[in-house]
Design brief:
This protein has 1533 residues and is α/β, with parallel strands linked by helices. The protein has 57 helices and 42 strands. The relative contact order is 0.05.
Length: 1533
């Protein structure tokens, strides 16, 4: 610990924030000591001072003096344990001459000492209990820097031949069992394990050794064993452990399968290749079928629906696919939260280029475990590898309990290894002939002995060439009988099965006992070859290394023919990796059938020693993370798990790269001195992060703030992470992507992607590619490079794939499948990029191409062509011929008979066409134009479903894009993604667009899935009548602020002196018009600027000078606002002798002889109008205050309008208060306010220091969205320092989930107390916690988090406000609809989203799961009110608005410029209901339209109809006519 003191002092004394210092400290002392780090940071200043004192002490002598003072009586002399001391050592003389003399004596003694003493001095090494090897040095996992061992095993043979040199390595000698070893009989296992190992008498030796750990604990494990040693069964034991932990034995009797809680866990098995994934699914599925545990494959070939994922317990996937899944916060990504076990097979692939992906998913899992405090067990399975301790450290495996290593002697079948060095110049014709000859000789010798042989080559075409060459050589040498399998008992049956294949080479070779296998073959053909070889119906199988990594298909012997492999990444041939050699050798030997196996590797003579040393000594596997780090870093930034350099440095600490950086620093250019100076390599990691982040920033994938070392993801980076697009590909897109592109341009751009680098143009393929390109029906779009480049080849193959044309050349078939699989993903990514950039033309083209690849139908083809086999070929052909000009809508209007005649077929065919036409996804939409301001237009779009929901439809929803674009079709003005379900008939969408000089816009809809399901409607704006610009904003003048003396009333001054000392700028500007004039007035000012205080002061002044019995009326639209206003005004008016009466219903309204202020809602006011004593009450009414007019709805408008109408001849003053409006002229006109008494300020005129930060998100409204928002919300709360925070969430249900996520974020920042102040302890909190009625809130309060809404009991709500006021609860989580009833302000206010979910009414005859789910935007006034909660007198505040990207511009504009306010009276049923009630009580005659018209003329609606007629579909300049039409409608409806 002494060596760490300077580093500790540097961290603690630095000026870095606690969050950064805690991360650096945890990296220094280890993340196992997280609690200690938290304690040190909590007492940072004291710890720093203590360290400073320790380090400033005078240096102690190197050795303890020989003479020590005598011990006190009764005490023994003890050894001192001071740092650097040695017991009973002589005192060192520090005199320079003495020191020089000692040095010379030491040198002479060393010179006289012999070089070798003959005595071995062993350094103490950690004893690893589960390492089983015959090598003495392997126990400590010790390797030289070069990882070499030059001594070959005893009994090694070396033979020299004319064409080659051969070295034969005998099988390894087995290790005798240890004293405590025994095979575990299956009969001793519990009932769960016993039935899962059918046919097993006992576990094998390896499985028996690992059984206690694998099945009996939750320890992370690394099991290194030779191929074929039974590692899959080790994985099975770990799987069974998870299943056993999720058994509910109590109360459940009978079968074990009934006890399993299947919804509570997921197990992920990561296999290196798709072929192996399929094999694992088959094996595990068969073994676990009796438990009803579902095993499914999730790879690029095999996708799973959300329902399938939900009902699957074990998912077998590839590293890349799991990386993609865990990058997604929605959909598949949500299953990561239920994972209990992660099995990584072939983990030694860390040394491969794909190793970076394994490092990424392991690091992400480890961080998930820490951040969520969940239990995810990691089990790594590997072939024997040299530096297994490093891999164990990477996987967080305990070396003592979870690390198991078994060397080659544990192979179930002893392996004899043959290394053959082929003579001849590498690549020459002679060397190739020698290689072919040697391969044939070895294969023929083995076949003559009756053995099966697998010959591994390194190209797909080479499998066929090698098989044909072996066949020809056998015919020429007369040994073909040795290869023939015609004597096999089912050979004839197999021959018929092979004859059904389209692969002619496969058919030809089978007759001679040969087979081929590679990933480019159809899966059915591959499966057939595997079955034939397993059944011994083939003697020699020529295959690629895919088979070694994939299917477990052993043979007696394997031959590796050549070691030169083309690496597309490097663009050259490279040597076959040692891992591939070991994996291929692992396929030699047939367990249970043979007692030996043979492995042959044929390489160039000059590479013979290389492979001898590499295979026998095994170089340590190194990390490949640096190569793929840019993409991985971008993914983490997109996920939100890495937001700055410090977090990225910490993230690297979870990778295998970090382990190897410390173990082998020289490989990465780090000197040992740097390691000594910086043991945690923080500087090196920081350099790596900054380098990769700079590359991402240059590609515009992130924003890298180098001053704050902060990262922010861009749309480009987020989309690249979502679709697994490489950073280098994004750089290419940045160069060539344009707003307007044709289909040919897009195809050319797609083909430039680096994902297609491995596609090579071969000379033999050019003729077939040319034939495709020259046929316009196959390649309709121009190919720029033709057949002159690999990009041209990719382009041709992609177009041929869409055209449903299959190449003859089998290599082209493989390349086409690869191109199609990746092109769909890349085009979809480009589509999202175009949409994010609002490029209309590019979006439309990419949308069509995306569906073209998915459906394999060109945009110009008939839409019904994508129906697949639903329509017979004859019907489709006649449809193209006779009805190609008919639209789907026209076809849907015909009868079955007419359609049959149209396509020259019968009515039966016409009925099939009619059904498809009616079910084809189309929508019709209408729109209304609603001008909001002089340059803003709301287009209300109503999209109605025009198709029937067929019974055979598999999809539960149909997604569409709807957008508004400019007249040129260049820019998308605004867009929405809507979904139709079976219960959805109509979806309403509002677009708010700027129309300064626009002559027209176009509304377009496009199906997200179906080609041809699209339409557009032009919207002319030439005749649009827009409201006049509002130019009457009140400027803020440099006036001196007024004090309370301006009230000129001592009683009022005293009443308000406790709340304020003086007026702010806005109150000063509005004081005269409110307090010194007796006319109607209107004040529109930013929220939080003191409007309510002015309203209370106005009420107090009016009633203070009024006579007894006079009263004032305050109308507020929300119950919470009423309660808050009443609470504040009571304390003021009580001492003045004025009564405050909150009227909750009409029955509680009574006349009073005292001065009274009555506070009520618009609904109550409407009911009061019908009371008999109402006319008398109006006689003493002096003031009407209309608060929060920005919330003017139909009820509020009707109530105030009726009051205006009733008091038109009375001296009643109306004063309105509202937040800042974009146009307040209509409101002033309605309230009869003269222009001189209209005071309207802009939102920017707010006096308080209030900063608004808008952060957009592109994730759909879902639980995953709020997971993604958790970190930004936590950062916002933390940015406030000790300030309290309000967090608004969409609903009550999300309050506790969000609070839990915030606690998790605190834990990740090592804030173990959460937001609780440092001085608070659990003991001091206890008195508060005892008062909680809801005990589930206690855990939140102990972390400084509270919840406030009407669902919380009243005492708990009061306690939450008390804790908030005392600073104990620093973060209060509130649902959005409670923003009106939350009577507090905060330094930090966060709006966590601006949408909520509204479901069908509970009474609907639909199951809850199938009810229509509609995402609704918050009211703009709600967002403004939330913003106002951060405005505090003389204090700064921050408002963080986390919203959907589509609404960012609209929200930001209204927050900056004020809210629009239009009437909703004409759309609501309120006016009609009120009229019918009056007709019923006789106060208005049903036939008296004039009286209705008179009332309407007093409404805000009438004022807006005149100034903004288009919004209300009114006739410009004809207000009476428009009102009369509305009256007619009301009286006839």
């Amino acid at each position: 610990m002494h060596a760490l003191r300077p580093s500790l002092r540097a961290i603690l004394a630095s000026g870095a924030p606690d969050e950064v210092a805690s991360v650096e400290l945890a990296e220094l002392v280890g993340f196992d000591a997280v609690e200690l780090v938290a304690e040190v940071i909590a007492q940072r200043r004291a710890a720093s001072a203590k360290l400073e004192a320790l380090l400033s002490e005078p240096a102690k002598p190197a050795y303890t003096p020989a003479r020590t003072p005598p011990a006190p009586p009764g005490k023994k002399k003890g050894k001192r344990r001071d740092q650097g001391s040695r017991p009973d050592s002589p005192l060192i003389d520090l005199d320079p001459a003495a020191a020089q003399r000692r040095i010379e004596e030491t040198l002479r003694a060393n010179a006289a000492r012999p070089l070798f003493t003959g005595t071995a001095h062993q350094t103490e090494q950690e004893v690893l209990p589960h390492v089983y090897t015959s090598s003495a040095v392997s126990q400590g996992n010790v390797l030289s820097d070069m990882g070499t061992r030059y001594l070959l095993p005893v009994d090694t043979e070396r033979h020299m031949y004319e064409d080659y040199e051969e070295v034969i390595i005998p099988p390894a000698r087995p290790i005798p069992p240890r004293a405590n070893e025994r095979l575990v009989p299956v009969s001793e296992l519990d009932d769960l394990c016993r039935s899962s190992f059918p046919g097993y008498a006992s576990l094998n030796r390896i499985q028996s050794i690992v059984y206690p750990t694998a099945y009996g604990t939750n320890e992370n494990m690394l099991v290194c064993a030779p191929t074929g040693a039974g590692k899959t069964d080790v994985a099975m034991l770990a799987v069974l452990h998870v299943i056993n932990e999720h058994r509910k034995v109590d109360g459940v009797h009978g079968a074990i399968a009934a006890q399993i809680q299947r919804k509570d866990f997921k197990i992920i098995y990561v296999a290196p290749m798709k072929a192996l994934a399929a094999e694992i699914v088959r094996k595990l599925g068969k073994r676990l079928r009796w438990l009803a545990v579902n095993v499914r494959e999730l790879t690029g070939d095999m996708q799973l629906t959300k329902a399938e994922i939900a009902e699957t317990q074990i998912i077998v996937t590839t590293p890349e696919k799991w990386d993609v899944v865990t990058r997604k916060p929605t959909g598949e990504g949500e299953l990561a939260t239920k994972v209990k076990l992660l099995i990584i097979d072939e983990v030694h692939l860390l040394n491969d280029e794909r190793g970076a992906v394994i490092e990424t998913i392991v690091a992400r899992t480890l961080r998930q475990v820490e951040s969520t405090q969940s239990m995810i067990r990691i089990v790594g399975l590997s072939a024997t590898l040299p530096n297994y301790v490093d891999v164990a450290d990477f996987l967080r495996v305990s070396r003592q309990t979870g690390l198991f290593y078994f060397d080659a002697s544990f192979r179930p079948i002893p392996l004899e290894q043959h290394f053959l060095g082929i003579r001849g110049k590498p690549g020459s014709a002679q060397a190739r002939r020698n290689l072919d000859r040697v391969a044939y000789e070895k294969a023929a010798a083995l076949a003559a002995q009756g053995h099966q042989v697998m010959v591994f080559v390194h190209a797909r075409k080479e499998t066929v060439k090698t098989a044909l060459a072996l066949k020809e050589a056998a015919l020429a040498e007369g040994t073909s009988e040795d290869f023939s399998c015609e004597a096999h008992e089912t050979w004839g049956l197999f021959r018929r099965e092979v004859g059904q294949s389209r692969n002619k080479e496969m058919r030809e070779l089978f007759d001679h006992g040969f087979g081929i296998h590679h990933a480019g073959m159809l899966r059915s053909d591959r499966n057939l070859m595997e079955r034939l070889f397993e059944a011994r119906a083939i003697k020699v199988l020529c295959c690629t290394a895919t088979l070694a990594w994939g299917v477990n298909l052993p043979a007696h012997a394997v031959i590796i023919k050549g070691t030169q492999v083309y690496d597309s990444g490097q663009g050259k041939f490279v040597d076959l990796s040692v891992l591939d050699v070991l994996q291929i050798f692992g396929r030699a030997g047939r367990p249970g059938l043979e007692t030996s196996g043979e492995g042959y590797i044929c390489t160039n003579n000059d590479m013979l020693d290389h492979y001898l040393n590499a295979v026998m000594a095994q170089h340590p596997i190194e990390s490949k993370f640096v190569e793929g780090m840019s993409d991985s870093l971008n993914a983490e930034i997109a996920l939100g798990t890495v937001t700055n350099v410090a977090e990225a440095v910490q993230w690297i600490g979870y990778t295998y790269l970090f382990v190897r950086l410390r173990k082998n620093p020289r490989l990465h250019g780090i000197t040992y001195q740097e390691v000594i100076d910086d043991p945690q390599l923080g500087r090196k990691r920081r350099e790596l992060v900054q380098s990769k982040a700079s590359q991402l920033a240059e590609a515009r994938m992130i924003v890298f703030d180098k001053e704050r070392d902060a990262f922010a993801i861009t749309d480009l980076g987020r989309i690249a992470a979502k679709y697994y697009i490489r950073a280098r590909t994004v750089v290419v897109f940045n160069e060539v992507f344009r707003p307007k592109m044709s289909e040919a341009d897009v195809l050319l751009m797609v083909c430039k992607s680096t994902e297609f680098e491995q596609i090579q143009l071969r000379e033999i393929e050019i003729p077939e590619l040319k034939s495709f390109m020259e046929d316009e029906n196959v390649v309709p779009c121009q190919v720029k490079d033709g057949t002159n480049s690999s990009e041209g080849k990719v382009n041709i193959l992609l177009q041929a794939f869409i055209s449903r044309v299959f190449p003859e050349d089998f290599a082209l078939v493989s390349d086409m499948a690869y191109v199609a699989q990746n092109a769909g993903r890349i085009i979809r990514a480009l589509l999202e990029i175009a949409i994010s950039r609002k490029w209309a033309n590019a979006s439309a083209v990419l949308m069509s191409l995306s569906k073209a690849v998915e459906k394999r139908v060109w945009p110009f083809d008939h839409p019904f062509a994508q129906q697949g086999d639903t329509l017979k070929r004859e019907v489709m052909s006649n449809l193209r011929r006779w009805a190609d000009d008919y639209s789907v809508a026209e076809l849907a209007q015909m009868s079955a008979q007419e359609l049959g005649e149209l396509v020259h077929l019968n009515q039966h065919h016409g009925a099939a066409l009619l059904r498809i036409a009616k079910e084809f996804p189309t929508i019709t939409f209408t729109y209304e134009l609603r001008p909001l301001t002089s340059d803003l237009l709301r287009i209300a779009v109503h999209a109605k479903r025009s198709f029937t929901w067929g019974q055979k439809r598999k999809d539960s929803m149909e997604p569409f894009w709807i957008w508004a674009e400019d007249a040129d079709g260049t820019d998308i003005l605004q867009l929405a993604h809507v979904v139709f379900r079976q219960s959805t008939e109509q979806v309403d969408v509002d677009f708010i667009v700027q129309i300064s000089n626009a002559g027209s816009v176009t509304i377009r809809y496009v199906s997200d899935r179906w080609m041809g399901a699209e339409d557009e409607v032009p919207v002319a704006l030439d005749a649009l009548i827009k409201p006049r610009p509002f130019e009457s904003f009140t400027p803020i003048l440099p006036l001196p602020f007024l004090g309370l003396d301006a009230l000129d009333n001592d009683a009022l001054k005293w009443a308000f002196s406790a709340r304020l000392q003086g007026f702010n700028a806005i109150q000063t500007h509005s004081f005269w018009s409110l307090m010194n004039v007796n006319q109607n007035a209107l004040l529109c000012a930013p929220s939080g600027s003191g409007k309510s205080t002015m309203a209370q002061m106005l009420v107090a002044k009016t009633l203070h000078k009024a006579k007894a019995g006079d009263w004032s009326l305050v109308v507020l639209p929300k119950r919470g606002l009423i309660a808050e206003f009443a609470l504040e005004i009571r304390s003021i008016l009580g001492p003045l002798g004025i009564t405050v009466d909150v009227v909750t219903d009409a029955n509680s309204f009574t006349n009073s002889d005292r001065k009274t202020v009555r506070i009520l809602s618009p609904r109550v006011l409407l009911d009061i109008f019908a009371l008999p004593n109402w006319p008398k009450a109006l006689e003493t009414l002096r003031l009407v205050v209309c608060e929060n007019l920005e919330l003017l709805d139909a009820e509020y408008e009707l109530a105030v309008s009726l009051l205006l109408h009733a008091t038109q001849s009375s001296p009643v003053r109306f004063v309105g208060f509202s937040t800042s409006l974009a146009d307040a002229s209509g409101l002033a006109d309605w309230l009869r306010v003269s222009p001189l008494l209209l005071t309207c300020f802009r939102p920017s005129d707010r006096e308080q220091d209030l900063r608004t930060i808008v952060q957009p998100f592109t994730i759909a409204h879902s639980a995953a969205l709020f997971k993604a928002m958790a970190k930004p919300v936590h950062a916002a709360i933390s940015s406030g320092g000790s300030e309290s925070a309000l967090v608004f969430v969409p609903s009550r249900m999300q309050c506790k989930a969000v609070a839990s996520d915030l606690i998790t974020q605190c834990a990740m920042d090592l804030k173990m107390q959460g937001y609780l102040p440092a001085h608070m302890s659990s003991e001091s909190l206890e008195p508060y916690l005892c008062r909680l009625q809801d005990r589930t809130l206690a855990d939140l309060v102990t972390c400084g988090i509270g919840i406030f809404h009407d669902g919380v009991s009243r005492p708990d709500r009061a306690l939450m406000l008390e804790l908030y006021a005392e600073g104990i609860v620093r973060a209060l989580v509130v649902p959005h609809d409670a923003c009106w009833s939350t009577p507090i302000r905060a330094g930090v206010v966060v709006a966590m989203g601006t949408q909520y979910v509204r479901m069908d009414a509970p009474g609907a005859n639909v199951e809850r799961e199938k009810r229509d789910r509609q995402v609704v935007d918050y009211e703009l006034a709600e967002v403004v009110h939330m913003q106002g909660r951060a405005a505090r007198h003389a204090l700064s505040g921050r408002f963080h608005l986390l919203c959907q990207a589509e609404g960012r511009e609209t929200l930001a504009r209204f927050l900056d410029e004020g809210l629009p306010l239009e009437s909703t009276l004409h759309e609501s049923a309120v006016l009609g209901d009120w009229l019918r009630a009056r007709w019923k009580d006789g106060s208005i005659a049903p036939a008296d339209k004039q009286q209705t018209l008179d009332i309407l003329s007093w409404t805000y609606l009438a004022r807006r109809m005149e100034s903004n007629p288009t919004y209300y579909d009114a006739v410009p300049g004809e207000l009476d006519q428009s009102l009369s039409r509305l009256v007619d409608h009301l009286h006839t409806s």
